Every structure is written in structure tokens, then in C-alpha cells.
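Q: Could you fold this chain for me?
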Amino acid sequence: MNSLIRYIRVIVKFTLSLITLILFFLSGCLVFILPARNSVQKRRQLMVVARWGCRCMLRILNVKVIIRNKEIFGSQKNWYIMGNHMSYIDILMLLAHFSTLFITSKEMGAKPVLGQICFFGGSFFVERRKITTLGQEIPRIAETLKEGLNITLFPEGRCSDGQGLLPFRSALIEAAVDSGVNVLPLCIMYTDISGRPVKVSDFMTIGYFNGLPFPRQFRKMMMEKSLTAEIEILEPVLTEGKDRKEIKQEIFERMNYRYNSYLEGRK
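A: Sure. Below is the predicted structure, expressed as C-alpha cells.
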């Protein structure tokens, strides 16, 4: 009986997800077709579409999001947001609740479904492995920050296995220095799955790492009844008078301390 219920759950969630994705892609195409005053307005329109689509997906997957210290987010016009990264669900939650653009890799842009979501969300696609291309992208990111838009970066550069933070990459943090926009560190923590506390062993269901095929991971998540996540906004990192390596170190220390506290008792 439990297997039958889980099978029906997958069918229902898959059908609703497919309908949502079709509407999301059509809305994104409409935004690209309609005229806009400038690229900033176009990106704002794409953020609205992405926010709607991601909120629908979270509801379909029955993901509850608890945001702590949210008043900090409204204390400044815009932020260079940075968080730890373990799952595609991280992206859905941040797009749904923080009205932000994303910096992601060109490899992600080439992936079916996830790549299209990032594209219609107004993401910046960068080649992290080539310093020459990063030098061209950083001014564009900094200029967008100066225009007053939020931009999110996962400084680990890829999904971790959830058992600790990966080393941070500092190159794209240079955009914070160039724009003068302060950094808002976030700690993303998954706390409950299908009505029970999350354990480290559950990261294989929630996460998206080690080259695991996305359809298989998404199917695992659809089989679960529910998921609860906490996003804790940490103390902002001021950028004035600092270089990117100093900023990186401050971000890492705050996020690493909070994430390690979360991991205690999850074994």
C-alpha cells in the first residue's frame, strides 16, 4: 500500500510540475518578446516570472521554507547574496523568496530543464574555469549590482554532499568590491523530511551532487511526502575597504560556523 501511495504521489507531482514548467517557459518567452526600456527592466520582469514558477514548484513538492532574520534583507536596497549549496531546491527557494538573479555555470545552462529555468530567470552564465572570461563577466555583474538588483552566487562553485562546506572561490566576489554592494551570507539547512528529522543519509535524496542524473534525483524527491528547510540570514559582510579574499574569508567563517552547528546531531 505504501508503495502504491508513493507511486501515485510521483505521478501527481510530475504532472503538476510539467504543467508549471510549460507555463513558466511560455511566460519567459513572452517576457523576451515584449519590449522593455532596458536590460534592467527585462531582468526584473524575468525575476517576477521565476518567483512565480519557483513558488509553484515548492508547493507541488510540498517544501516548507522558514526564513530567519528576514528583517536584515530589507535593511538595504540590494545585496550580493551568497549561500551554501547542496541541491537544486536551494535555487527554487532563493528565487521564490529573495527576488534575485543568479550566477551559474555554462555547464548548468546546458542541462535540460535546470538550464532553461536559469535562463528564463535572468541568470548570468559564466565559465568559472577560464580567468579570461571571468574578467569580462565581473564588470557586467558589478554593473547590475549598481543598478539595484540582487544577485546570488554560490561561492563553493558546485553542490557539496551536505557534510561540510567546500572551499570558496573568490574570483566572482570581486564584483562586490567593484560595485560597493555589501554581501548577505545565507545558511541553507534542511531540517525535516516526510515528517521526521533530516539525517546525513537523507542528503542523497535531497542533494544534487557527484554527477547524479537530475531526473533520478527529482523522482526521489517527488516520492517524499514533504520537506522543511531553514534559510538563516547571517550578519552582512561589509565590502568597503576590503579585497575579495578578505571578504571571502569573512563569508566562509560565518557560514561554516553556522552550518557545522546544524550538522551536529544529524549523523
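A (continued): The mean pLDDT is 88.
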